[in-house]
Design a protein that fits this description.
The complex is a heterodimer of chains A (210) and B (169).
Chain A lengths: L2 H4 L1 H8 L4 E2 L6 E4 L5 H10 L5 E9 L8 E8 L6 E7 L8 E3 L8 H12 L2 E3 L34 H7 L13 E2 L7 H4 L2 E2 L14
Parallel strand pairs in A: 2-5, 6-7
Antiparallel strand pairs in A: 1-2, 3-4, 4-5, 8-9
Chain B lengths: L11 H4 L7 H10 L4 E5 L3 H9 L22 E5 L4 H13 L5 E5 H6 L20 E3 L6 H16 L3 H7 L1
Parallel strand pairs in B: 1-2, 2-3, 3-4
The chains are: A alpha/beta (210), B alpha/beta (169).
């Protein structure tokens, strides 16, 4: 990493004393209070050459944590070739967390923020068009929240006409008891591979006579 | 003088412009050999579907090379790929817009059962929303498997009582 991006943290701390260093195993990372994050990101973009927002996502520290939701920005410098990770705690309560939108700094943040809103339910204030991007409009849950089960929750199909015609709901699809099972804890990977639950006939035992 | 008929096949000079056959046979013959697919390409299976349409596998040998992107002109919907719940309504709507008689091939593990996507977002088998005639295993299936499914569907159509169904319709 070049010298100009090497110690951005201490340079930033002179201007923004509320910034703290964040534990990181790879690139430098900082914690920023929510009300300063726009100014810090703008300073990183304009003064420290971090011109590319490579990712914007969030972390759910599970219910009861304070703060529960943390928005994470990954910035890259296309001239200095270095990364920095910026994390900011969401404001607002557990059900409706809020964070400032950075679409004014990077237009590309638009869809990232829509996805983060869709998956975590974080409202990005100042976003021009905050709609769901993956799930359909009207879907009642935010699937990447820790309290949302992996299998899903039974709900209605997006189109009520089709739902009435087919009688098919959006079903919970748990792995356990499903069509495929995996034996965990096996050292033999062949044995541990997911396989059809009905093993009445397979490669080793012939199909029974009907 | 009486002589036996030595003609082995249809000869218009002998029989004029008339062929005698069963209505089922001729209707099913027409239907099986011009089964225009609606390519419902939703994921990687669509790549194999395209390969099947190419010169190496040549789905045209079975009269199903005319991929119609308008459901009004299609006979057989090939659901090639993962059907999400968000897409499920559109798949059903397109199926509803197809003119009868119509058939559905569920191509690959995802379309048949949800496949490896056992989650909140994926329809667990397209047979929950449309009636499926042939399922193809594989992830994705090879083009030969799709051709085999098409032949299976054709033999199914050949056995149907089309004339009776048309009269009752």
């Amino acid at each position: 990493m070049s010298s100009s991006t090497a110690d951005v943290t201490s340079a930033l701390q002179e201007k923004f004393p509320n910034i703290t260093a964040r534990d990181s195993l790879d690139h430098q990372a900082i914690n920023v209070p929510a009300d300063e994050v726009l100014a810090v990101l703008q300073a990183l973009r304009d003064e420290h050459a971090f011109d590319l927002l490579t990712d914007l996502t969030a972390i759910d520290w599970s219910e009861g944590s304070d703060p529960r939701f943390v928005v994470v920005y990954h910035l890259y410098s296309t001239t200095q070739h270095g990364y920095i990770r910026v994390a900011t705690d969401c404001t607002g309560d557990e059900e409706s967390p809020k964070a400032p939108s950075v679409t004014s700094l990077w237009a590309g943040a638009d869809w990232h923020e829509r996805e983060t809103y869709d998956m975590f339910g974080i409202t990005f204030e100042g976003h021009p068009d905050l709609r769901r991007i993956l799930m359909w409009p009207g879907y009642p849950y935010h699937p990447l929240r820790k309290d949302f089960p992996l299998a899903g929750i039974e709900t209605e199909l997006p189109d009520p006409e089709i739902a009435a015609e087919t009688g098919t709901p959006v079903i919970a699809a748990p792995m356990m008891g499903g069509p495929f099972v995996a034996s965990t804890g096996e050292m033999n990977m062949t044995e541990a591979e997911p396989r059809a639950k009905d093993e009445s006939w397979n490669e080793s035992s012939e199909k029974p006579e009907a | 003088m009486v002589s036996s008929n030595t003609e082995l096949a249809y000869n218009s000079k002998v029989e004029g412009e008339v062929v005698v056959t069963k209505a089922d046979a001729v209707i099913n013959w027409i239907r099986t050999n011009s089964m225009w697919p609606m390519p419902m390409g939703l994921a990687c299976c669509a790549i194999e579907l395209m390969a099947t349409g190419g010169a190496r596998f040549d789905i045209a040998r079975f009269g199903a090379e005319v991929m119609r992107f308008s459901p009004r002109q299609a006979d057989c919907m090939i659901v090639a790929g993962t059907v999400t719940y968000k897409m499920a309504s559109s798949v059903r709507r397109i199926y509803d817009q197809m003119a009868g008689p119509k058939w559905v091939i569920a191509m690959g593990a995802c379309a048949s059962s949800g496949g490896m996507y056992r989650s909140y977002a994926t329809l667990q088998g397209v047979d929950r929303i449309v009636p499926v005639d042939v399922y193809i295993s594989g992830c994705p299936p090879r083009p030969e498997a799709l051709l085999d499914a098409l032949m299976k569907l054709q033999s199914k159509v050949k056995k149907s009582s089309s004339a009776k169904e048309l009269l009752n319709a």
